[in-house]
Amino acid sequence: MFEGKTCLLAIESSCDDTSAAVMCDGLMLSNIIASQAIHAQYGGIVPEVASRMHQENISLVVDAALQKAGVSVSQLDGIACTAGPGLMGSLTVGLSYAKAMALTLGIPFISVNHMRAHVLSHFIDEPRPPFPFLCLTVSGGHTQIVLVKSGTDMEVLGQTLDDAAGEAFDKSGKILGLPYPAGPLIDRMAREGKPVYPFPIPQVDGLDFSFSGIKTAILYFIRDEVKKDPAFIETHLNDICASIQHVIVEILVRKVSLAAQLHNISHIGIAGGVAANSGLRTRLTDIGKELGWNLYFPAMQYCTDNAGMIAMAGYFQFIDGHFSPLDTKPFVRGME
Question: Would the pLDDT of 124 be above 70?
Answer without folding.
Answer: yes
